Structures are given as C-alpha cells and as structure tokens.
Amino acid sequence: MMTRIVLLVLDGFGIGALPDADVYGDAGCNTLQRLAAISKGLALPNFEQLGLGHLGQFQGIRPMVQPEGCYGTLGFSTKGKNSLSGHWEIAGYVIEEGERLCETFTTELANALEAALGQKTLGNCRAVTQEPIAEFGGQHQKSGMPIAWIDTAGTIFLAAHEQVVPPEELHRLAREARKLLKGMVPIVRVVACPFVGQSGKFSATERRRDFAVEPPGLTLLDHLSRASQLVIGVGKVGDLFSGRGVTRSVPLFQAEAVMDEVVGMFSKVPRGLIYASLPVINPDLQTTVSTLQQIDRRLRDLQESLKVGDVLIITGDHGFDCARPDPGHSREYVPCLVSGPRLARGVNLGTRSTAADLGQTIGEALGATRLPWGDSFLDALQSR
C-alpha cells in the first residue's frame, strides 16, 4: 500500500531528443550527455544508484549492476517544450491540437501586452533566460516601463525593479496580462520577475510568480483532491496549475531551499503527494553542474527519510541543452527514477511515449480515479 509520494521535477533535465525534435530545431539534443561531456564527467553517485546510468551514455555516470530503484524514460505527446506543457502532461493532461502555445514575441503580442498593462514596455524580444534585465534594467529605472520578453519555449516574462514597481503591483500587472492575453493565445503563462540591484549587478529575487491559465481539463491534482488526498506544491508547481487541486503551495525558486522544504515535510505531511519543481539547468554550465551535485547530495537525506508506503520519483519537464551555441529549451525525453522501501529494484520501465503514464501511476497508487491519458506502470513497481 502506497500512502505518500514525493515527486521531484528537475527543470530542463533532458536525456535525449524526441522523435520530432527536428521540427523544433532540436535534432540531436541531449542535455545531460552534453553537460557531462563538457564537464569531463559528472559525479552524481545517488542518481547513479537509482539507475540513471542505464538511460544513456553520460560521462562519469555508470550503469549500476543492481540499482536501488526502477528506471525508465518519459516522452511527451503535447506539442511544446516548456514547464507548463511538461508539468501538465506529467499530471495527466495532454494539450491537444488547437490548444496552441505562444511561440514568438510578435508585434501583435507586444501591442496586446501593452494594452493589457495600460503602458509601454521595454525589450519586447525573445531571450533564453533573463538577459533583458541586464540589457534594459537601467533604462527601466529611468522610464518606469516594465521589461517584457518571451523565452525560447513561449513563456512571457514581465520584469521590474522592486524600487520602481513593488512586487505586489508587478504581480497584479502579470495577472491582468494573463487574463487579457488568453483571448489571443489559449494556453499562456506570464511570469512576474521582480529584481534588485544596480546596472551591471541586477539580480532576480524570490518574489517571482507564475500566472498561468488553468488546465482546460482535469489533472492528477484534481483527482487526488477529490479522493481527499493532500497535494503540496513546492516551487512553481502551484502557479503552473493556477492553484487548482493544490492543498497548499510553497513558492520557492532556489534548489537548496526546495530540497530543505521537501525534507522538512516528512514530519508534517503524512499522506498524499509532495510535488516539487527544482530549478536546475541554465546557460551557466558551472552553476548547473553545482546545482545537480547539490541535489544529488540531498537525495540521500530524502531516501533516509522514506518510510514503508513512501515513494520517491525523480523526473524532468523538458530539456534545456545549455551546451549548444544557442542554448535554450529543447524537445527531449526525461528520466523517470522511482524508489522506495519494499518497492521493486532494478526494473527497466522502458520508454514511455507520454509522461501522462507517470500521472496515471501516481493516481492509481494513491487511490484516485483514472485519468483520460496515460497507462499506469504501478504493477512493475511492486516488489517481487
């Protein structure tokens, strides 16, 4: 009997191009493989013990003879490569044709955004991460106009210095923009990015908020809530689902803080789903490697906290091939590593065509009704 599941979704944790990656300009992408090669080998012993080395050739990561967990690979049916579409599919909701995502910062989008905000914006460009803050931050301080851009996967960002636009006001603007842009783009996410500092030393703060439309259909979180299970969202999880189906949301945006929160929840959350998003992969290779190693060290703390009935699942929401000349979100498979007391060990879960299989598995394990998409692999996890 499974009573509590800890789901860690590592942002950008890709392990190889999906069959349609070339359509997105991502043919041959493999986030973890390239990161390991450039680093001349990654030291991730706890990921290794869980079976990560069986999912590809990653320098420094060995395929263990007797892994402590079950391992497999998840693909994505949704046509996209961002956190919104990735998390929704993990939670059992597949965005179908016609529910299009935003893709480029067009003149039409810029005009609609400025109309929604009631003022002009700076930037209005496409960027990988938060480069527009460095480029337009000084001009923003003088003019008071927010900075706007779209990333390589269709998420719209709205940034402002906290001394120019208070975070609460920026949140209100982003929320309003999301409401009004929905008529133009059905599936949209607007991220409010408050920042501090001076020109040349700007830095984003922990007061970021993601404002996304609600999933058009029911997700795993809805089904678990209806089954009277607790659902705790850590990181940006609550925002990605507009709070729907989430018992409590803890917005954190540093990997170490997220891991601290998750470990601390073992004494507070006796059942249900602890669902956390961890920011990991970004264009700064040294920071990415350091963050991965930091998470790997903390995995031992998590595993030692697991009790009979607990399950730990680690996966990703998309790729982020930071080693290519033009880094950014990439259309990739992600790992699925599952472990827990009295669960099977060393079972190859195979390559799943949709991440919705994971949502279906979690739902079945916690007694929720069946989701519309995905096939459960719960039987494969049962100890033999």
Automatic annotation (TrEMBL):
Q: Which UniProt keywords apply?
A: Isomerase, Manganese, Metal-binding
Q: A single Gene Ontology molecular function, please?
A: phosphopentomutase activity
Organism of origin: Nitrospira defluvii
The membrane spanning regions, by residue number, are none
Q: What is this protein called?
A: Phosphopentomutase
Report which residue ranges the record marks as coiled coil: none
The family database entries (SUPFAM superfamilies) matched by this protein are listed as: Alkaline phosphatase-like, DeoB insert domain-like
Family label: Belongs to the phosphopentomutase family.
Chain ranges of the Metalloenzyme domain:
284-367
